[in-house]
């Protein structure tokens, strides 16, 4: 365990490394508890470093066995070695080879960082600082070396031996039960991209020929018996490889690309060079066990990790403050890929929903931080929605401002200039500035200022002058460490919708507004559009062109009009959501009578519109989540009142539209066997939305329909959707269906995770007892991150009424789990504690109980840096 209060690391303190490593030879002798690692580092003094600087290598919990310089063993007096650091105060020369032998215990590694075991297999996770748990090394992303890795192991225990790059040699070790393999990665890389895998794994093999004719062997390795579930991942991989060639001109650069799925993994997946390691949740799928959401998650994560090969690996980060350089950009790239593979508007709506749920809430609370933070105490806590999802939005805004061609020119220049380097956000911005001649100084504030800007817009029509005027102001709310902010560059895409529903021409003075992009750069600005013959309705922030909160003052009638006519599908969706949000806020605040007629009419029209994609309809008709309503209310939040208001509105819609919904449900019966394509998934999503609305009052008919679907479904999407409906209601069918589901899928941990999630999210006063009971269930394990996230994580982050019980029992429970988990796996523990990120917006009673729980965590001695950092900042 590290210090509870390590000194913060600051971006401003960045210094180049004193020593570089040109070449690394690793030799692993795998063993369950005593794996022997021999590292030979070709060290060279950095000409840009400090005169006479010592060699200081990072370690974390290491046991040193032996040290040698250029082959000669080193006497104890000439170095200093502790678990966390190795120092050579007087290096013998300006370049030499340091040989280090360490012993590590993969079985005892419950943090799942460094070399560990998952279901008996050996695997590694090195980003961000796991390599130092394997050997002493300058474990920072700006030290790039060429790696050769030799692995030996018992043939029985680990018939498969993998590492980065290309396989150069393998075979038995004569006279022993062991065998070996040697892998060589020709591309210089930082240590966080190192990976090793050893174990009993089934392989799915395929090939890919790149645009320039390189033949690549593709392999997906999964636990034995699961090979038939890797087909969709392989298909997604090949589509990703092709797409990066056409969309960005990026080809794959090794002869082998391997993916390994493991069942114990802290995050989603990892882009190690040529050897991606995945949480098996993002690889394994079959119609019987995976939902449409799982399929699209697999497609997105496979693409994301593959795209890192260029944005992350070929060009890496200078330091961890630049994390968004690879993550924001790569999320943008995977979102674009999925948009091209599926429906662009539907993908955009789903991404914005996710952005608002995770990032806007983070940005409005005590854990808010810039896309590029200025300091950190634990870098693992900065793999956040802000760095990833807001980081992607910043890249998207850049594209909106520069246009398709300018953006591509900037990307091309970035790849050309920085290939093989560890780069910064400044380098990235400079490539776009130089390629297009545009000054991006003010735009770069998006990387520096935290908080979600509020853009307030007032429209006025002058019939005589035939002008329409938009008065726009922007302000960024204060966030931790940033009380005042400067105005940002905000690309606000707008349209003016005329009385017949068509867009009016957008002309400012004599210039046509290209692509509808208004560039906000000042605290207050006005735009006067000319040649406007009738009063329009403004459609603002089309496609969610900027990650801001727009205050538009649109009337309910205007929203109904946009929902029916806006040429921008995102804003049609948003108009309906805005209508609903207004009603929900009112309902939650005052228990005010809900008057949803306008919303009902607009929803009915959407449902009846045969020109619209079912997936779009499902998104448009799904009410804003409880979290979004809470964030809109901003203060004195009572989650029970929100829940009640949402349920009342849902019932009103369900009752009023019952006929249309039943008709939709009947019309959308699948015509054939399950296929995971977007069109089929869209029909299922609308049909299952209808199922949910039709059961909202727990009518006998609604429950019977869901129960029948649960029993008859031939795929997991429909079965789970029906179960999700049943569990929301206190009916006998609930426990019956839960028991049947468990019996049917108990052998399948990833499916049982869904069973945990649904139960953890029931909005009922006995849910906490249920969750506590399930923690003792044989299928649950505190040692497996997917189980913890599915049961306790889903309760804390997905059940606002029960996590925030007024008696404080929900908060206390989550704090207890965090404290129990922290000594075993600090990353998963701190992630769970982050569920408190919106605690300050709660009403006083619940706020006090959240604060007490956070204080109890913060005051516990011996906390990990991860949990201590979150607790301190959440309270700060
Ligand atoms: N770079 C990985 C990705 O593709 C995330 C790995 C983060 N791992 C961690 N332990 N923080 O997003
Ligand atoms: Zn990533």
From TrEMBL:
Peptidase M1 membrane alanine aminopeptidase domain residues: 232-443
Database matches in Pfam families: DUF3458, DUF3458_C, Peptidase_M1, Peptidase_M1_N
Domain spans labelled Peptidase M1 alanyl aminopeptidase C-terminal: 557-875
Gene3D superfamilies the UniProt entry points to: 2.60.40.1840, 3.30.2010.30, Neutral Protease Domain 2, Peptidase M1, alanyl aminopeptidase, C-terminal domain, tricorn interacting facor f3 domain
EC number: 3.4.11.2
UniProt keyword list: Aminopeptidase, Hydrolase, Metal-binding, Metalloprotease, Protease, Zinc
Cofactor(s) listed: Zn(2+)
Top-rank taxon: Bacteria
Domain Aminopeptidase N-like N-terminal: 94-193
GO molecular function, one term: alanyl aminopeptidase activity
Domain Peptidase M1 alanyl aminopeptidase Ig-like fold: 451-550
Principal EC category: hydrolase
InterPro entries for this protein: Aminopeptidase_N-like_N, Aminopeptidase_N-like_N_sf, PepN_Ig-like_sf, Peptidase_M1, Peptidase_M1_dom, Peptidase_M1_pepN, Peptidase_M1_pepN_C, Peptidase_M1_pepN_C_sf
Reaction it catalyzes: Release of an N-terminal amino acid, Xaa-|-Yaa- from a peptide, amide or arylamide. Xaa is preferably Ala, but may be most amino acids including Pro (slow action). When a terminal hydrophobic residue is followed by a prolyl residue, the two may be released as an intact Xaa-Pro dipeptide
Database matches in NCBIfam families: pepN_proteo
Family to which the UniProt record says this protein belongs: Belongs to the peptidase M1 family.
Protein name (Swiss-Prot/TrEMBL): Aminopeptidase N
Provenance organism: Xanthobacter agilis
């Amino acid at each position: 365990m590290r210090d509870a209060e390590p000194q913060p690391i600051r971006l401003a303190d960045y210094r180049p490394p004193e020593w570089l490593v040109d070449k690394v030879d690793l030799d692993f002798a795998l063993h369950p508890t005593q794996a022997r690692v021999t590292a030979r580092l070709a060290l060279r003094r950095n000409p840009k470093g400090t005169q006479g600087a010592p060699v200081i290598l990072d370690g974390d919990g290491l046991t040193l066995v032996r040290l040698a310089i250029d082959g000669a063993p080193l006497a104890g007096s000439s170095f200093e070695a502790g678990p966390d650091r190795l120092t050579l105060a007087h290096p013998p020369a300006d370049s030499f080879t340091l040989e280090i032998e360490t012993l590590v215990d993969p079985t005892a590694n419950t943090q799942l960082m460094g070399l560990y075991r998952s279901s008996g297999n050996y695997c590694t996770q090195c980003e961000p600082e796991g390599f130092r748990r394997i050997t002493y090394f300058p474990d920072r992303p700006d030290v790039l070396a060429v790696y050769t890795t030799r692995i030996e192991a018992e043939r029985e225990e680990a018939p498969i031996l993998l590492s980065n790059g290309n396989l150069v040699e393998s075979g038995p070790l004569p006279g022993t039960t062991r065998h070996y393999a040697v892998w060589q990665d020709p591309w210089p890389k930082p240590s966080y991209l190192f990976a090793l895998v050893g174990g009993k794994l089934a392989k799915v093999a395929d090939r890919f020929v790149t645009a320039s004719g390189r033949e690549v062997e593709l392999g997906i390795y999964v636990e034995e018996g699961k090979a038939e579930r890797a087909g969709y991942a392989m298909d997604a991989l090949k589509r990703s490889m092709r797409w990066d060639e056409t969309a960005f001109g990026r080809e794959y650069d090794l002869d082998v690309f391997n993916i390994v799925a493991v069942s114990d993994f802290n995050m989603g997946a990892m882009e190690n060079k040529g050897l991606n390691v995945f949480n098996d949740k993002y690889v394994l799928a079959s119609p019987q066990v995976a939902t449409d959401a799982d399929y699209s998650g697999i497609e997105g994560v496979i693409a994301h990790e593959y795209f890192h090969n260029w944005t992350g690996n070929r060009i890496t980060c200078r330091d961890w403050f630049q994390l968004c350089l690879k993550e924001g950009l790569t999320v943008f790239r995977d979102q674009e890929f999925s948009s091209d593979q599926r429906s662009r508007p539907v993908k955009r709506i789903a991404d914005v929903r996710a952005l608002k749920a995770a990032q806007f809430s983070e940005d409005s609370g005590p854990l808010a931080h810039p896309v590029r933070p200025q300091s950190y105490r634990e870098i693992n806590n900065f793999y956040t929605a802000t760095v990833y999802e807001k980081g992607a939005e910043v890249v998207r805004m850049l594209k909106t401002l520069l246009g398709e061609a300018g953006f591509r020119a900037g990307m091309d220049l970035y790849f050309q200039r920085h290939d093989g380097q560890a780069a910064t956000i400044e380098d990235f911005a400079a490539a776009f500035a130089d390629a297009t001649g545009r000054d991006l100084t003010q735009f770069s504030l998006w990387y520096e200022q935290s908080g979600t800007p509020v853009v307030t817009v007032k429209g006025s029509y002058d019939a005589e002058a035939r002008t329409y005027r938009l008065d726009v102001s922007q302000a960024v709310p204060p966030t931790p460490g940033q009380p005042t902010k400067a105005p940002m560059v905000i690309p606000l895409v707008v349209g003016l919708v005329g009385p017949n529903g068509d867009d009016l021409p957008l002309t400012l003075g004599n210039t046509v507004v290209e692509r509808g992009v208004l560039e906000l750069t000042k605290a207050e600005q006005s735009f006067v559009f000319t040649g406007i013959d009738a009063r329009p309705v403004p459609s603002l922030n089309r496609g969610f062109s900027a990650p801001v909160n727009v205050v538009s003052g649109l009337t309910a009638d205007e929203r109904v009009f946009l929902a029916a006519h806006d040429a921008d599908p995102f804003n049609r969706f948003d108009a309906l959501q805005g209508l609903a949000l207004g009603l929900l806020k009112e309902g939650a605040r005052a228990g005010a009578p809900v008057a949803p007629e306008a919303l009902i009419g607009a929803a009915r029209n959407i449902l009846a519109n045969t020109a619209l994609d079912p997936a779009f309809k499902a998104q448009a008709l799904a009410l804003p989540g409880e979290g979004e309503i809470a964030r809109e209310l901003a203060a004195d939040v009572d989650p029970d009142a929100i829940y009640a208001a949402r349920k009342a509105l849902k019932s009103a819609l369900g009752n009023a539209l019952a006929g249309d919904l039943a008709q939709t449900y009947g019309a959308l019966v699948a015509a054939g066997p399950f296929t995971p394509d977007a069109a089929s998934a869209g029909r299922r999503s609308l049909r299952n939305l209808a199922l949910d609305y039709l059961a909202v009052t727990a009518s006998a008919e609604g429950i019977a329909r869901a129960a029948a679907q649960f029993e008859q479904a031939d795929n997991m999407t429909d079965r789970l959707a029906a179960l999700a409906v049943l569990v929301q209601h206190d009916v006998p069918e609930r426990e019956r269906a839960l028991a049947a589901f468990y019996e049917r899928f108990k052998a399948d941990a990833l499916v049982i995770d869904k069973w945990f999630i649904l139960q953890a999210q029931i909005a009922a006063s006995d849910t906490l007892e249920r969750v506590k009971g399930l923690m003792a269930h044989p299928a649950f394990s505190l040692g497996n991150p997917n189980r913890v996230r599915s049961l306790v994580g889903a309760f804390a982050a997905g059940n606002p009424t029960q996590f925030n019980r007024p008696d404080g029992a929900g908060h206390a429970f989550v704090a207890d789990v965090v404290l129990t988990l922290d000594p075993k796996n600090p990353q998963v523990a701190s992630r769970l504690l982050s569920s408190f990120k919106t605690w300050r917006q709660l009403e006083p009673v619940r706020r006090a109980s959240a604060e007490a729980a956070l204080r109890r965590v913060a005051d516990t001695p011996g906390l990990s840096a991860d949990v201590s950092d979150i607790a301190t900042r959440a309270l700060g």
